[in-house]
Amino acid sequence: MTQRHTRAAVFSAGSWGTAVGKIMADAGTNVIMHARRGKIADAINATHRNPGYFPDVELPPTVTATTDPAAALEGADFLVLSIPAQSLRASLTAWAPHIGPHTVIVSLMKGIEIGSGLRASQVITEATGIAADRVAVLSGPNLAREIMGGQPAAATIACPDEDVAHRVQRACHTTYFRPYTSTDVAGCEFGGAVKNVIALAVGIASGMGLGHNAQSMLITRGLAETTRLATALGAHPATLAGLAGLGDLVATCSSPLSRNRTFGTHIGQGLTMAEATAATRQTTEGVKSAKAILALAGIHGVEMPLTEIVSDLLHEKVTLDQAAAALMQRPPKPER
Ligand SMILES: NC(=O)c1ccc[n+]([C@@H]2O[C@H](COP(=O)([O-])OP(=O)(O)OC[C@H]3O[C@@H](n4cnc5c(N)ncnc54)[C@H](O)[C@@H]3O)[C@@H](O)[C@H]2O)c1
Ligand SMILES: O=P(O)(O)OC[C@H](O)CO
User: Fold this and answer.
1) Strand, helix or coil for residue 139
2) Which of 228, 218, 157, 230 is nearest to 193 (CA)?
3) Ligand 2 atom 4: residue of nearest CA
4) Residue numbers belonging to the annotated binding site for NADPH
5) 3-state SS of 255-320?
6) Whether the predicted pLDDT of 169 surpasses 80
7) Beta strands 63-66 and 153-158: pairing type?
8) Whose CA is nearest to atom 21 of ligand 1?
9) Which of 148, 186, 210, 239 is deepest in the core (most CB within 10 A)?
């Protein structure tokens, strides 16, 4: 008897969804991408390329695409979710009726929902009624363009159920992609969401012409405030020193491939929010999540001066010079 191939439905065929679809196909899974645009789905089926995001990279023949959510989810072992975090709840309302009773959900999203302050995995359990132990989170230093080029990378896959994390790990392990497992879902998700805000800060500093000392200060103090928030909300501090914390922070804050860092650079160069937004085609989670993270910090009494100043800059409440001065002139304190 021939063994049935594992099946993954990837929603949607954006930048990271396409890269994870390729990883899973290279790891031996049959992948069906859900694309909102028929043009993208048709091109993936006809040319094995995603012309909207990576026209230069060939996808394995086991990657196909559809615009029909029900067809994509038919018999899926995994539902991989990679859409903007703020659109997750509404999208799930439409997709949830098609999710099978044993399908494992894998969240790739790095954002906190405005209004509820919930992490993506919490939005998924709330919107679908699916138990948390069937929801895994994949997070780490994973710039999609590098991974599409076959360059080596690693990530953390977190799930309260270790067996589920191991299943996802097996489905994603390739010669160029090395996933580790964890049970610290909160740590992984806060690491992924807050690093986007810190990357905005580093981009702003770079755009202002500030040097590597300043950028390194922002990365280090950014990690300190990320760890303060995450641990106040139940995360393990070691997770924030791992791939989903420090690892992702360094990659995102250092690379011109990062959309968050690039957005920040535009702001640091003096573009208005409207101009920076117009110059950005893809999802820039930190711009929206900053507000939600700050609200969470307020509720839990956690000091997050970088997130606060980035949020003020994004809302055009302070000038660049006022922001830099405000950070440097904070009262002296011990390093922690
Ligand atoms: N690109 C990366 O390198 C990378 C790496 C790791 C994690 N992530 C995370 O993955 C998530 C997705 O980012 P991305 O880079 O793929 O973004 P993207 O902009 O490249 O793609 C977003 C996808 O979501 C779809 N989409 C947009 N709005 C939607 C809506 N309202 N409803 C349903 N679908 C919608 C788009 O059609 C597109 O397919 C983000 O949370 C991001 O932080 C991205
Ligand atoms: O392009 P960004 O800024 O969304 O970052 C992409 C990934 O999250 C890096 O790990």
Assistant:
1) strand
2) 230
3) 259
4) 15-16, 36-37, 53, 110, 144, 259, 285
5) CCCCHHHHHHHHHHCCCCHHHHHHCCCCCCHHHHHHHHHHHHHHHCCCCCHHHHHHHHHHCCCCCH
6) yes
7) unpaired
8) 14
9) 239
Q: Provide the annotated binding site for substrate.
A: 110, 259-260
Strands 7-11 and 78-81: parallel
Identify the residue whose C-alpha is closest to ligand 1 atom 44. Answer: 16
Instruction: Determine if ligand 1 sits within 6 Å of the CB of residue 84.
Output: yes
Largest CA distance in the chain: 71
Active site residue 195: yes
Domains and CATH numbers, the chain: 7-183 (3.40.50.720), 187-328 (1.10.1040.10)
pLDDT digits (tens, 9 = 90+) for 141-157: 999 999 999 999 999 99
Q: State residue 5's pLDDT score.
A: 87
Average pLDDT, stretch 60-69?
98
Percent of the chain with pLDDT over 90: 98
Q: CA 70: distance to chain centroid? A: 25
User: Could you tell me the sign of the dihedral formed by the alpha carbons of 315, 291, 311, 260, in that order?
Assistant: negative
- Is the pTM higher than 0.90? The answer reads yes
- Two structure tokens written together for 175: 């010669």
Q: What phi, psi does 196 have (nearest 5°)?
A: -65, -35
Q: Is 311 in the pocket of ligand 1 (CB under 6 A)?
A: no
Reported ipTM: 0.98
Buried b vs exposed e over 65-87: b needs ≥16 C-beta within 10 Å? bbbebeebbeebbbbbbbbbbbe
pLDDT beyond 80 at 260: yes
pLDDT above 90 (res 336): no
